[in-house]
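Renewal narrative, Specific Aim 1. Our central claim is that a sequence can be written position by position from structural information alone. The example that follows is taken directly from our test logs and has not been curated for this report. It begins with the structure tokens describing the chain, in the order in which they were read.
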């Protein structure tokens, strides 16, 4: 349940999402775009994000888990949905009934898809389509080349069609990874030939995610699977895409103010005594909401009235404190921006990520489920305007 009683929320700007998706659709055309909306669309709001991405021209969606796929179907999404993680055997029927396209890493699971299809629909119904997931060097999941060929053969003897062949690049976001990325693309090409040799020509070959889609145009094939760029951040500083607009803002309100004297400190550990008499603001959001405790040591700032202020002490589970300094015009109820824009100032997920030695993906994907998502914007209106013009 979302804590609506508390003044902390995440704003999801669907106009920005539409804008980002539209830019990517234009850049990679005629390749198709698969909008990756796993993990509640990296912490945003999966169904609404999916609808805006489709409106902008994405033709596929991708999720990690069966539940994520079912939730999109329950939200009324009709577009094809790719399940990136091979499901356990016992969930294959559920995946098929929900109309999800299953990624297959193992020949045995392809046979199980065939059997499940027959159990559900018998002889009459059409084929179901699967995508072969090939490992070309990521080393996380996916079939070996031999297994990929075995999976392709299953299709010859069953009502299962090979609708796609895909793989995933491990270092496309880093220029030093160029030789390995080219090697992965070579292995992918070799797999396409090996499949052709057994009469298998998947309609969709796809290997690029955000980084590959921008840095390696030859990796776009029939479709790119884009996540982080939809949400307004580049996959790394080496893959700049200046037109992106961050979609998520994390906001709260000041709920309490107190004065402390020079030499006093606040929060667990009383870590940083103030060097002048100071006003401290309490803000009801904490590390259980995805605001990392380490942000205090990393000297992160928040925005109030368009100005940057430092944290006054370590972030606690549900609340944090901000040092407003000696003189302050801030009042209870003022809006605090932890991530996002306020006036001329901006704090991005990549700013937190740099300070915490992580990536923007982790910052946004970890915004807690307790934080209500407030949707703003009207992509339908932008879309109708574009069509009319
Ligand atoms: C998460 C994921 C993506 C999206 O990656 P981005 O870098 O966010 O674009 C694409 N493909 C697979 C297999 C993934 O797991």
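The sequence written for that structure reads:
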């Amino acid at each position: 349940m979302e804590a609506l009683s508390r003044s902390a929320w995440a704003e999801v700007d669907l106009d920005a999402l539409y804008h980002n998706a539209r830019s990517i659709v234009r850049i990679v055309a005629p390749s198709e775009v698969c909008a990756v909306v796993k993990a509640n669309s990296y912490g945003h709001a999966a169904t609404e994000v999916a609808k805006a991405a489709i409106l902008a021209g994405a033709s596929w969606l991708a999720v990690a888990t069966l539940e994520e796929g079912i939730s999109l179907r329950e939200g009324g999404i009709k577009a094809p949905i790719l399940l990136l993680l091979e499901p356990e055997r016992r969930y294959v029927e559920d995946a098929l009934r929900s109309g999800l396209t299953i990624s297959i890493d193992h020949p045995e699971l392809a046979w199980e898809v065939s059997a499940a299809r027959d159990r559900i629909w018998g002889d009459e119904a059409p084929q179901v389509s699967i995508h072969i997931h090939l490992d070309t060097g990521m080393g996380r999941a996916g079939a070996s080349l031999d297994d990929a060929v075995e999976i392709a053969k299953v299709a010859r003897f069953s009502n299962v069609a090979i609708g796609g062949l895909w793989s995933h690049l491990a270092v496309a976001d880093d220029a030093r990874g160029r030789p390995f990325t080219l090697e992965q693309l070579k292995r992918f090409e070799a797999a396409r030939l090996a499949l052709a040799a057994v009469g298998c020509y998947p309609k969709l070959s796809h290997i690029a995610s955000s980084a590959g889609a921008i840095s390696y145009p030859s990796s776009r094939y029939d479709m790119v699977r884009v996540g982080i760029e939809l949400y307004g951040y580049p996959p790394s500083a080496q893959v700049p895409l200046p037109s992106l607009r961050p979609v998520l803002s994390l906001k709260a309100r000041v709920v309490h103010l107190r004065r402390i004297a020079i030499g006093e400190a606040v929060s667990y550990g009383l870590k940083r005594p103030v060097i002048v008499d100071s006003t401290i603001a309490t803000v009801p959001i904490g590390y259980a909401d995805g605001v990392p405790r380490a942000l205090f040591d990393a000297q992160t700032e928040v925005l109030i009235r368009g100005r940057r202020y430092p944290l006054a002490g370590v972030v606690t589970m549900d609340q944090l404190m901000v040092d407003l300094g000696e003189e302050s015009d801030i009042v209870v109820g003022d809006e605090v921006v932890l991530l996002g824009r306020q006036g001329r100032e901006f704090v991005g997920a990549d700013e937190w990520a740099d300070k915490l030695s992580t990536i923007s993906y982790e910052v946004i994907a970890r915004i807690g489920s307790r934080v209500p998502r407030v949707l703003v914007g009207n992509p339908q209106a932008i879309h109708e305007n574009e069509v009319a013009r």
